[in-house]
Amino acid sequence: MNATRDRSIGIEDLRREVQTILESPPSDIVRGLLHQRDDWVITPEMGNLLSRLTRRISAQSILEFGAGRSSLILAHALHEGGGGRLTSVEDQPAYAEQAWRRMAEFSSVDARLVHAELGVRLSKHGLLHEYLGIASPLAARGPFDLVLIDAPPGHLGRDATLLAAGRYLADGALVILDDAARPKEQTSVRRWQRAFDAEVVFQSNAVAHGVVVLRLKRGMAPRLSLRTFLGTIHDRITERTLRG
Questions:
Q1: What is the pLDDT of residue 2?
Q2: Spatial separation of the C-alpha atoms in residues 121 and 126, rounded to whole Å
Q3: Where are the domains of the chain?
Q4: pLDDT < 70: residue spans in the chain
Q5: Which residues face 176 on adjacent strands?
Q6: Mind spelling out the 3-state secondary structure of the chain?
Q7: Mind listing the pLDDT tens digit for each residue in 114-137?
Q8: Staple 42 to which of 46, 48, 59, 130, CB 3.0 to 4.6 Å?
Q9: How far, rounded to the nearest angstrom, does the alpha carbon of residue 44 sit from its chain's CA centroid?
Q10: Could you report how far apart the first and last alpha carbons of the chain are, in Å?
């Protein structure tokens, strides 16, 4: 499948559209798909953003890090738009099992849950908590024109997600980061901007748990950054110190 998108949306128009979506009430469908609230479920505001942006850019291939009820939101939006492909990366698939039992409802969606363990690995980008062994499924199921990053757990840092996925993204792909009000997520955004030709479409700590929307001018392998490399080493030293 070759992902195709509406590339005519200017950055300012897209920014205004994201703002409008976040100010509008979530639909009953979104609320229904998220009705079982817990600490791991995205907010209705984030669900509304995912649903409407998926339709607005005519997304056909979506990647998410962190599966669960967000997967249902994305699958429903793809189904309503005529179908597509959803690839969800998760290190604890048992937490997503209940939601994923409903994937059969979206017959036009090719949904795959990729179980990938987390591990600390030293690479040319630094010392990072990474999803191990995901290059092959991402290469096979890309290019992706929308990415949701809602994992791994925030204390591990989320830098490695987009660093791993960047070469498999379509030109002009949108990247949505949840929990973006937290300092580690804000650091990830800065590191991604050093690695890619990425524009910040929207950034707010006042909605959901904080949200950042990025647009990548082109899919590409991440550029190297000494600042990022050293920063990740510092992060791991800090983690070890805090664990005592």
A1: 42
A2: 8
A3: 11-243
A4: 1-8, 36-39, 244
A5: 148, 213
A6: CCCCCCCCCCHHHHHHHHHHHHHCCCCHHHHHHCCCCCCCCCCHHHHHHHHHHHHHCCCCEEEEECCCHHHHHHHHHHHHCCCEEEEEEECCHHHHHHHHHHHHHCCCEEEEEEECCEEEEEECCEEEEEECCCHHHHHHHCCEEEEEECCCCHHHCCHHHHHHHHHHEEEEEEEEEECCCCHHHHHHHHHHHHHCCEEEEEEECCCCCCEEEEEECCCCCCCCCHHHHHHHHHHHHHHHHHHC
A7: 999 999 999 999 999 999 999 999
A8: 46
A9: 16
A10: 49
Query: Quick count: other Cβ atoms within 10 Å of Cβ 66?
Result: 25
Report the distance separating Cα 47 and Cα 148, nearest Å: 11
Q: Would the CA dihedral through 21, 26, 29, 34 be positive or negative?
A: positive
Identity of residue 76: H
Structure tokens at 110: 């090719």
Tokens of 174: 């949108």
Residue type present at position 52: R
Q: For 11-243, CATH number? A: 3.40.50.150
Which tokens in the block code for residue 201? 């479409």
Its pTM stands at 0.94
What pLDDT, on the 0 to 100 scale, is given for residue 77? 98
